[in-house]
UniProtKB/TrEMBL annotation:
Entry-linked NCBIfam families: V_ATP_synt_G
Phylogenetic placement of the source organism: Eukaryota, Metazoa, Ecdysozoa, Arthropoda, Hexapoda
Regions annotated as coiled coil: 48-97
Pfam families, A to Z: V-ATPase_G
Subunit relationships: V-ATPase is a heteromultimeric enzyme made up of two complexes: the ATP-hydrolytic V1 complex and the proton translocation V0 complex.
Family to which this protein belongs: Belongs to the V-ATPase G subunit family.
Protein name: V-type proton ATPase subunit G
């Protein structure tokens, strides 16, 4: 029983046919070779089909991995954008707090600039009135 079934079948056929038909031994062996070739071709076709199926499964896995990668990148981008926006809002809040504490409001700053400008303008006019006679002597 250690001999494969096909081999036992071929031996049985040879044992029956060869004694009776010695002249057809060559034809029988040729048929045996053709039969073996047919079986081998069938196995090769099955092997090719298995390879094609494995290749298809591999391509599906690669496509799914690419989709997962795209989803992960999109999710990371969204998380980064949200984090950046949160950071920006926090820094803006800190800046406004600093500005209010150290410089006052924008209206206060504008009013202070206007007061300083008026003060300097008034000082210049006073200087012109005070030194008007001296300036006139220089140009005469």
């Amino acid at each position: 029983n250690s001999v494969p079934l096909r081999e036992r079948q071929f031996r049985a056929i040879e044992n029956i046919v060869l004694p009776v038909l010695r002249s057809q031994t060559v034809a029988l062996k040729t048929r045996k070779g053709a039969f073996l070739s047919l079986i081998m071709a069938s196995h090769q076709t099955q092997g090719i089909q298995q390879l094609l199926a494995a290749e298809k499964r591999a391509a599906e896995k690669v496509a799914e991995a690419r989709k997962r990668k795209v989803r992960r990148i999109k999710q990371a981008r969204e998380e980064a954008t949200a984090e950046i926006e949160q950071y920006r809002a926090e820094r803006e809040r800190q800046f406004k707090e600093y500005e209010a504490k150290h410089m006052g409001s924008r209206e206060d700053i504008a009013a202070q600039i206007d007061r300083d400008t008026e003060k300097h303008m008034q000082e210049m006019e006073d200087n012109i009135k005070k030194n008007k006679d001296a300036v006139g002597l220089i140009f005469c």
